[in-house]
């Protein structure tokens, strides 16, 4: 370990400060910060906004970490047909009704392409109205799990101290 510490000092590497928690791993008896990012002054100058982000843990006693280097630019996501739509009784009826309602002129390939495009737009609106923004619902559930995890860590830490 001393050799590693000497290397870090010689190369003037910086340890990013811990993100939300200083502990990335726990087994209810002890906690530890296993992972970390090191950066050089050159890297820091190039990516001044870089920060360590703790990812949620799902089936593990360990939180992975990620180095976020810049602001996220949100791009429109590609269209995907969701299997959950087929569980909705009116889905196939709506698709058939919408498809037949589109009046498109031109060659057969153009008509088909345009109808698919129009159907995609209808499905996006229907999805939002029928199911809401699923990503936001998932995000809320993940935050709930993370908060429960934090409460458990605090309780475990409290029990260790007493």
Automatic annotation (TrEMBL):
This is Uncharacterized protein. It comes from the Eukaryota. InterPro entries: Endo/exonu/phosph_ase_sf. SUPFAM superfamilies: DNase I-like.
């Amino acid at each position: 370990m001393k050799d590693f510490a000497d290397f870090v000092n010689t190369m003037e590497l910086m340890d990013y400060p811990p993100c939300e928690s200083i502990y990335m791993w726990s087994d209810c008896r002890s906690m530890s910060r296993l992972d970390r990012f090191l950066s050089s002054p050159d890297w820091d100058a190039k990516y001044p906004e870089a920060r360590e982000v703790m990812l949620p843990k799902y089936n593990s006693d360990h939180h992975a970490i990620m180095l976020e280097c810049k602001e996220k630019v949100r791009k429109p996501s590609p269209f995907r047909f969701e299997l959950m739509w087929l569980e909705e009784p009116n889905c196939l009826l709506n698709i058939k009704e919408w498809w037949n309602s589109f009046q498109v002129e031109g060659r057969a390939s153009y008509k088909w392409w345009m109808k698919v495009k129009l159907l995609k737009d209808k499905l996006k609106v229907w999805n939002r109205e029928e199911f809401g923004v699923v990503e936001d619902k998932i995000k809320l559930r993940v935050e709930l799990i993370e908060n429960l995890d934090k409460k458990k860590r605090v309780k475990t830490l409290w029990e260790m101290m007493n």
